[in-house]
Amino acid sequence: MKTKLTLISAALLGASLMSAPVISQAAIPQSVDGQQVPSLAPMLEKVTPAVVSVAVSGNKVSRQRVPDVFRYFFGPNAPQEQEQVQERPFRGLGSGVIIDADKGYIVTNNHVIDDADEIKVGLHDGREVTAKLIGTDKESDVALLQIEADNLTEIKPTDSDAIRVGDFAVAIGNPFGLGQTVTSGIVSALGRSGLGIEMLENFIQTDAAINSGNSGGALVNLKGELIGINTAIVAPGGGNVGIGFAIPANMVRSLVQQIIDHGEVRRGVLGVMGRNLDSNLAEGFGLKSQHGGFVNSVVKDSPADKAGIKAGDIIVSIDGKPVKTFQELRAKIGTMGAGTEVKLGIIRDGDDKTVEVTLGEASEVKEQAAGNIHPMLAGATLENKDKGVEITGIADGSPAAMSGLQKGDVIVGINRTRIKTLKELKEGLEEHEGGVALKIMRDNNLLYLVLRG
Fold first, then answer.
1. Among 35, 65, 145, 416, which residue's Cβ finds the most Cβ atoms within 10 Å?
2. 49 near 124, Cβ under 8 Å?
3. Which residues contact 42 (CB under 8 A, 6 or more apart)?
4. CB 294 within 8 A of CB 275
5. Helices (H) and strands (E) in the chain, counts
6. pLDDT tens digits in sequence order for the chain, 453 residues long
7. Ramachandran region, residue 20 (left: φ > 0; alpha: ψ -120 to 50; beta: rest)
8. What are the PDZ domain coordinates in residue numbering (predicted)?
9. Phi, psi of 164 (to 5 degrees)
10. Residues 400, 411 contacting (CB under 8 angstroms)
11. Is the CA virtual torsion 188, 193, 195, 198 positive or negative?
């Protein structure tokens, strides 16, 4: 029997689990570091002023295609634009965490402030301050704000790789706009991915109650150290059932530093495509463990290629820290900055090896797994060319092949918009929900292929 559940984080939806979750109440330990802890109040009194409410307002732009049949009604007077653009005002509430009191930096979720024209931050002492958006990363759902205010309190991110399943955790946020609320629980799981919430997923799972409005709030340990940013929950009835997800502090720290340094995230790229190591692959390679990322192929001239990584390698660690899945590998690499030097632990032909790699920048690695851009492009490999984005490879039976794409096709437009680069292709597809028409150059002929959402 399958129970369908809904993942809710603001407007984020999707996913199902095999059975209904069992909700448990975590007891608070009697001591931490040898000191008796009769209450969480002393720790919370220090850290709760660093957790703020985030109120946003703006206009949501929606586009709707005008049916071609209208041209039969209006003839030559038909509207030239094939899309209707509408703006609808919206308001939203979320949470944020002050990570630098001197500079007024606040971390929240991208989906909390997405499309906002105005961002107001409510401080613990009742002050309301207008915030400036410094930068965002949609793929990991992180945003950095800045305010100008005195007497702020901060929570510094700690080493989230050091936390373990079973560690106690405390969630602080602004659920349902009620005001600041604190809940406690444990770390239920680590490295959660494949949930379809974000492009880059490596979540901490916790049973500390997280509800609508907690997005962007703090997940802290019993010392009051920031271990994650609350992002999503599983909510079959719209409320907490004990399954919440937070972005690890290490990922947040890396992304924030890139935004501060460059005004944007300069994502590190390894240059491999692969899959999770399952029982069949493990048996075929004579491995006892089923943890790791299996490398299907290596992009030519990529950082992985230059470092000597080969198809068939199994990546099991990054800088000495275990990697359980290919999604976890992708998320960790993707949130490290370009130019970062990492040591990858790999298994090749049954032997353990360590490979040093300097991560490249996305613009430097021309070919990408197209499934990261649109699900119906999965199986295709894309490369920037002078005229547009060329399909340099395509897997038989893949969604891209079933969409009608062929090797050698050059994508030159989306609907009526001209595109020339992978970045423009990705941005264009993100702007259009549902089906889109790709303008293709094939053998010097132009044609359109429709991608279903």
1. 145
2. yes
3. none
4. yes
5. 9, 31
6. 333 333 444 333 333 333 333 334 555 566 666 666 668 888 999 999 999 999 998 887 665 555 554 444 445 554 554 555 667 888 888 899 999 999 999 999 999 998 888 999 999 988 999 999 999 988 889 999 999 999 999 998 899 888 999 999 999 998 877 788 899 999 998 888 766 666 677 889 998 888 777 889 999 999 999 999 998 877 666 666 778 899 999 999 989 988 988 788 888 888 888 888 877 777 777 777 778 888 888 887 889 989 999 888 899 999 888 888 888 888 888 888 888 899 999 988 888 899 999 998 765 554 444 655 777 887 787 887 878 888 888 877 778 888 889 989 999 998 878 888 877 888 788 777 667 888 999 988 888 888 876
7. beta
8. 284-350, 362-444
9. -130, 155
10. no
11. positive
262-267 CB contacts, 8 Å cutoff, 24+ apart:
263/134, 263/135, 264/135, 265/135, 265/137, 265/140, 265/335, 265/337, 266/337, 266/338, 266/361, 266/362, 267/139, 267/334, 267/335, 267/337, 267/338, 267/361, 267/362
Three-state SS across 50-107? HEEEEEEEEEEEEEEECCCCHHHHHHHHCCCCCEEEEEEEEEEEEEEEEEECCCCEEE
Q: Measured between alpha carbons, how far is 56 from 109 in angstroms, rounded to an integer?
A: 12
Tokens 């802890």, located at residue? 37
- Helices 326-335, 249-262: crossing angle, 10 deg rounding: 30
The string over 417-436, giving b where at least 16 C-beta atoms fall within 10 Å of a residue's C-beta and e elsewhere, is eebbebebbbebbeebeeeb
pTM above 0.70?
Answer: no
Beta strands (DSSP E) in 101-167 are 105-108, 116-122, 128-130, 132-137, 142-146
